Every structure is written in structure tokens, then in C-alpha cells.
Amino acid sequence: MAALAPLLAVAFLAAAAHAADPFAFFDWDVTYMAASPLGVPQQVIAVNKQFPGPVMNVTTNYNVVVNVLNSLDEPLLITWDGIQHRKNCWQDGVLGTTCPIPPGWNWTYNFQVKDQIGSFFYFPSLGMQRAAGGFGGITVNNRAVISVPFDTPDGDITLFIGDWYKKNHTHLRKMLDDGKELGMPDGVLMNGKGPYRYNDSLVPDGIEYETIKVEPGKTYRFRVHNVGVSTSLNFRIQNHNLALVETEGSYTMKQNFTNLDIHVGQSYSFLVTMDQNASSDYYIVASARFVNESLWTRVTGVAILQYSNSKGKASGPLPDPPNDEYDKTFSMNQARSIRMNVSTGAARPNPQGSFHYGSINVSQVYKLRNEPPVIINGKKRTTLSVIRTSVINSTYKNFLEIVFQNNDTIVQTYHIDGYAFWVVGMDYGEWTENSRGTYNKWDGVSRCTTQVFPGAWTAVMLSLDSPGFWNVRTENLDTWYLGQETYIRVVDPDGGYNVTEMVAPDNMLYCGLLRDKQKAQKPHGSSSSAAAVKLNNYLLVVLVPLLALALGH
Predict the structure, then answer these.
(1) Nearest C-alpha neighbor of 479 from the set 509, 515, 454, 444
(2) Between 511 and 26, residue with greater pLDDT
């Protein structure tokens, strides 16, 4: 009952602010759990003893209250990839706006999925923890009064794909701290499970694999999230079309793919119709992209699609990936082909294309350049150059153009918290002002995470309509851990719009130089309270500069 007290208190206080909208309550215990997804025992991060964690199923405008108990032996933050937290960056769950939950403590998140629909996911944002799990889905359904631009599916399936290492996240972290590369992953998991034994020489016996059971003739919505460390994956279902209908909160023009590249941190949803003869089960495949496939064969996830009238097990070769091992033109053309459905409503009844982003004057332009890692003070670090400070200062209602230039040799994906942005262009080479002539200024897809190919650029535009302090980062965990992030500070400096961000919550955690303001909480998780020593050491080194910036906005 004591653990529920903070949850109930927050719910009571929030009820006055959003009384007209429903509440959804979640009580999570984040713990370590033993698992052997690739046949080797290792420590994974579970939510309520589930790996992956439970799917959060809510509806537009719901108020979400999540009481998180940190039963790990190190600090914890949960971030909500794609949830915009309107004017409420305190709930974002990243360093710079939120102090971590100490080991053995609980903290209650309280936010609203205001004017949003779509497929997103949550994950632990500190110290490579996502490489050990702790992730789960967020499904934001349409309100009943808003029509959806396709028939109601017969089922809804969430599928997590991602590269995976047999080493624990703490080991991976130490490798990066020591200046080492993580190297090739040991495999790809699907919903936390290893590959089906499609090849006896590549997949050992005894691996547990994912099986998705379906009925013939029915259509299912697959929500697919790449929650991995750093590997772009090609997703395909043997003999079935993938009808893309939504990505990260935007309905897209419906189009069929036989396969689609899904980059780290990205989410897509497809309609898949069970229109085959079920002579056997079918492979669901996620394989590594832009690598030497002969060397990376093991980095392939394989699950099974099983009709209720299936006549046997899947066998034979996997469906072929795109035939462009190193040529990324195919993948870029795929990405360019994804367009927003401008005539349908989403969270609101007005069409998605009502906001004519292509006709708005740009207030500020930033070119953020990804370079190969450099040595700073004797340590290997990654940076976003051309930013002289760690903060992009801007103003409420400004309209930003951000160009991500990737001069490294691997695909990077970039994410902006608090916002969806329009992907207006991408191409190879160095971006110049003449590149604007190629921009899509009408139906560019609106999303929160975009890929940037090596030796290429991607341009996005966003309207700064939510005051706060918002994280901009690479989603590739190794690059992010080594430092590649910045922040956008959005203020209403003269009060002209009379719009301000929400005040800091009453249950705000204090840490670093402000830790003396924190009231003690008796550790009540399954971890040792002695692990709290790790927290102070971690925060003094990493968080203090960011916290000072956050408190200054």
C-alpha cells in the first residue's frame, strides 16, 4: 500500500487539471531477470517480470500515470519515445530534465498523450540499459469519434526487433569507456526471443523463438519497433505483403512493401492479410543491412507466422533481402516513398495536411554534423559539430529547419523529444542551400525519428509549439552513450503568447549539486540500498552540467 501512495497522490492532483479526460494507471517494477535468448544465460531488464515489458494501451488525450519502482542496482530513467509531453518536459525521462530514480526508490510519471495517435515505445534511457531490455510498446488508439483511414483489423500485434549482444549492458558500457568498438552483434531478437532454427549450422538447438498465431483470411495490424543497439534491419514476412499505414503517430499513404528497412529507434505499422494457402508456417525475418552478409549471417532474427490450419513447419531458405548489400540507394528511395496521408484525420478530425508546413517562413536553421568518434581529454567521444554549446536556444512559435549531415560510415538515426517533425528531404553528398530545391513541402511524413545514411544528409522541419527543454539525440546506443546529443530550449521570452511550460512536479527528484534538497526515501526495491553510492558518482560526472542548463530555462 505504501508504494501506491505516490501514485494516488499524483492522480488526485492531476485530476483537477484534466478532469474531462480518462486516466490510465500503471504500476511497474523494473528488475533484472535471467534469460537465455541466444542460448547463453545472461541478465536482462524486465518490467513486471516481462521481457519485453508490457504494452501500454491508451487512447488519444488519456492521462497516463506510471509508478516505476527501480529494483535495479543502478539509476533508472524511463523515456517515452515519440510521446510529446506537451509543455511538460519534466516527464521526458532523459538526463537534463529529470534526475534518475535511485536504486530501490520509486517515482511516478504523470503525462497526457495530448492530440496523439500511433505506435511508439518506451525504454530505459541511461547507460546502455536498453541493450539489456526494459523496453515495451505504447499504442495510442484513435478516439471513437475519429475515423481511421482503413478497416478495423482483426487483431493488433506488437513486434520488437533489434540486434543483441550476449554480453551484459554493463560490459558493453565498459568496452565503450575503454575506447573499444562493440563489434558485430551476436544475433537479432524478436520479442525478446532468438531465431527459429531455419538452419542447423547457424542456429543451435534449444533456442526459444517467437510464434505469432493467426487465422486464415483475416487482416492484422503489425506494430514493428527497432529497439536494438545500432543495426539497421530489413523486415519481411515470407509470401506476404506489408501494407504500410502509419509511422510514429502519422497515417501514411497506404502502400505495399515486400520488405522495409527499419532503422534503430523507428516504428512502423503494417496491415498484413493472411491470404496464403498455409501449406506450411511462414518465416518472419529481420536481417542486418549494409553489412557483409556472408560474415553477418548470424545477425538475423527469425520468428514464425503460423496459420491455424497450417500443414507443417517452415523450412527451406529465408526470403531474400534486398539485393544491394552496400548500395543504399534502394533504402533511401524506400524512405522517400513514404508520404503522409494529408486527407485523413488522426488525433483530430481535421486532415493531417491542414498545417501547410511548406509555406511557413523558417526562423532558424541548424546543420548538425555527425563525424567519426574523436578523442577528448583522453576519452573516445562522439559529437554533433557546429554547435558551440550543448543547447539550441529558440522561441515559442519559431519554425526550425534542421539538417543532419552524416559523415561517418554507418547509418545514424536521430530523434527529437517533445515533437514530431516533417522529413522534407534526404540525399547523398554534402547539403547546401541549393538542396532545398529538392524538398517535399506538401506531404512529407511527420515522425520523431529519422535515418541519415552515411555520406548523406536528411532535412527536417518542426514548429516549436511546446515550451520546454527537449533532448535531440542519436538513437544508436553506442554513439549516444559516447556523447552525441544536444537540447532545444523553447521559451516564450516576452510573454506575448502567454504560454508557459508546466511547473516542476511536486515529486521532482534532486541530484548532483542539488541533492541536499532531496527528501530521503527508504529503499524498498529488491536491489541493495548500497547501490545508491553509484548514483551520486554517476550524477556528479554526467548530470550536473545538464541539470544546471535545465533549471535555467
Answers:
(1) 454
(2) 26
Report the pLDDT value the prediction gives residue 221, as an integer from 0 to 100.
Answer: 98
- In this structure, the chain runs to a length of 553
Burial of 427 (0-12, 13-18, 19+ CB in 10 A): middle
Residue 35 parent element (H or E): strand 23-35
Q: Which residues, 6 or more positions from 142, have their beta carbon under 8 angstroms from its beta carbon?
A: 59, 60, 117, 148, 346, 347
How many Å apart are CA 113 and CA 111, to the nearest integer?
7
C-alpha cell at 59: 487512447
For residue 549, pLDDT beyond 60: no
What number is the average pLDDT over the span 140-159?
Answer: 96
Tell me the Ramachandran region of residue 480: left when phi exceeds 0, alpha when psi lies from -120 to 50, beta otherwise.
alpha
CA-wise closest residue to 72 among 540, 535, 543, 546: 535
**SS3 labels along 82-131:** CCCCCCCHHHCCCCCCCCCECCCCEEEEEEECCCCCEEEEEEECCCCHHH
Q: Are 269 and 445 in contact (CB under 8 A)?
A: no
Give the contacts of 472 (CB within 8 A, at least 6 positions apart): 368, 384, 392, 414, 415, 416, 417, 485, 486, 487, 488
How many alpha carbons lie under 13 Å from residue 512 in its C-beta half-sphere? 18
- pLDDT at residue 388 in the model: 54
Given a cut of 80, whether residue 386 has pLDDT beyond it is no
Q: What average pLDDT does this structure show over 508-533?
A: 74
Phi then psi for 6, rounded to 5 degrees? -60, -35
The C-alpha cell that represents 174 in the structure block: 565498459
Are 221 and 269 in contact by the 8 Å Cβ rule? The answer is yes
Q: What is the CA radius of gyration of the chain?
A: 23
Site of grid cell 499504442: 139
Judge whether 89 and 95 are in contact, CB under 8 Å.
Answer: no
Helix (H) or strand (E) holding 539: helix 532-551
